[in-house]
Write a structure and sequence with these properties.
The complex is a heterodimer of chains A (249) and B (66).
Chain A lengths: L1 H32 L2 H25 L4 H27 L8 H14 L10 H29 L2 H22 L8 H23 L10 H27 L5
Helix pairs in contact in A: 1-2, 1-4, 1-5, 1-6, 1-7, 2-5, 3-5, 3-7, 3-8, 5-6, 7-8
Chain B lengths: L1 H14 L4 H19 L7 H20 L1
Helix pairs in contact in B: 2-3
Classes of the chains: A mainly alpha (249), B mainly alpha (66).
Chain lengths: 249, 66
């Protein structure tokens, strides 16, 4: 039960932050260069992503569960540690926080500076930027959906969590027609980094033959341990940074 | 050839990222966990401990070089 809820939350939150980033790119290109080609790019990338999940997800269910958990857990752990590492560097001030308003202005300036598509009905600049943006952000979502879904035997639930996040972000994006800069993106990324690392450790160790004390309840213990570790590291790095730049305190 | 190289670079960046030592450390820690479990030891503590050390060391390198 606890693992199902955490799985849903992890996939939902990861999908939401990636969708917010993709929305920024799509909005910037659409507003400056028009919506037709931009939306065709979004649709094409969405089809590719759906095909990846539909092809790989069910195929992985034929792999023995212990081997699957070992490989998927190891990949998820390496991947999750990247998110957590960046989140700690951002929270401690060693790396700039991601700002959707700044990203939107940058994308908009680039879209405006690109060559016009003239009389052609298809604007390939808009198509390519929207396709690439949605595909690259979406691949992380597809990876998380496939790994979480196949390892836990709940591909449908993982896909539903990602779908719900995408619908929510797209709806809000259409309503406000601006980048979602008020979403606490950096905080959500921190939480997702913790969740990916938690599941990565849990599944990889199970795949290596470990029996966790308390079975699935160990997930909550791992999450607590990693959260305490991450906050300790943020505080340590923040103090280190302030000691290097005493004027900033 | 160029496409194969950029495809490999994409996956390397996707999974391994900025610090390859973290991914290598995870692989070693997993191997040790499997070996200890094989010998009948309870090794559930090893991976969380390895993650704490690897993350701390990686952040130390990042903030020193930054």
């Amino acid at each position: 039960m606890s693992s199902t809820v955490i799985l849903f939350l992890a996939v939902f939150a990861a999908s939401a932050v990636e969708a917010v980033e993709a929305l920024t790119i799509v909005l910037a290109v659409g507003v400056v260069r028009g919506w037709r080609s931009t939306l065709i790019g979004v649709g094409a990338a969405s089809l590719v992503l759906a095909a990846v999940v539909a092809a790989l997800g069910p195929a992985l269910t034929h792999v023995p569960i212990s081997s699957l958990r070992l490989v998927v857990g190891a990949l998820l752990l390496a991947f999750g540690l990247q998110w957590l590492r960046k989140a700690i560097l951002r929270a401690s001030g060693f790396m700039a926080q991601r700002d959707e308003a700044v990203a939107f202005e940058r994308e908009r300036a680039e879209a405006g500076a690109a060559a016009s598509h003239g009389a052609s009905s298809m604007d390939w600049y808009s198509f390519t930027v929207a396709f690439k943006g949605v595909l690259l952000e979406g691949l992380e979502v597809a990876f998380i959906v496939i790994t979480f879904g196949s390892t836990q035997g709940q591909l449908g639930l993982a896909a539903a969590a990602a779908g719900a996040a995408l619908v929510l972000v797209a709806t809000v994006g259409v309503l406000v027609h601006a980048p979602l800069s008020r979403v606490p993106e950096n905080t959500i990324k921190f939480a997702v980094g913790l969740l990916l690392t938690t599941f990565g450790i849990f599944w990889a160790a199970e795949g290596a033959g470990v029996s966790w004390p308390g079975d699935e309840l160990a997930l909550l213990g791992l999450l607590g341990f990693l959260a305490a570790l991450a906050f300790f590291l943020v505080e340590l790095l923040r103090r280190q940074r302030l000691s290097l730049q005493p004027g900033e305190a | 050839m160029r496409y194969a190289r950029s495809f490999a670079a994409f996956w390397w960046d996707f999974i391994v990222g900025d610090d390859w030592r973290v991914a290598a450390g995870v692989a070693i820690a997993l191997g040790l966990t499997a070996a200890l479990t094989d010998y009948g030891w309870s090794a559930w503590w090893l991976l969380p401990l390895a993650v704490a050390v690897l993350l701390g060391r990686s952040l130390q390198r990042a903030t020193r070089s930054g």
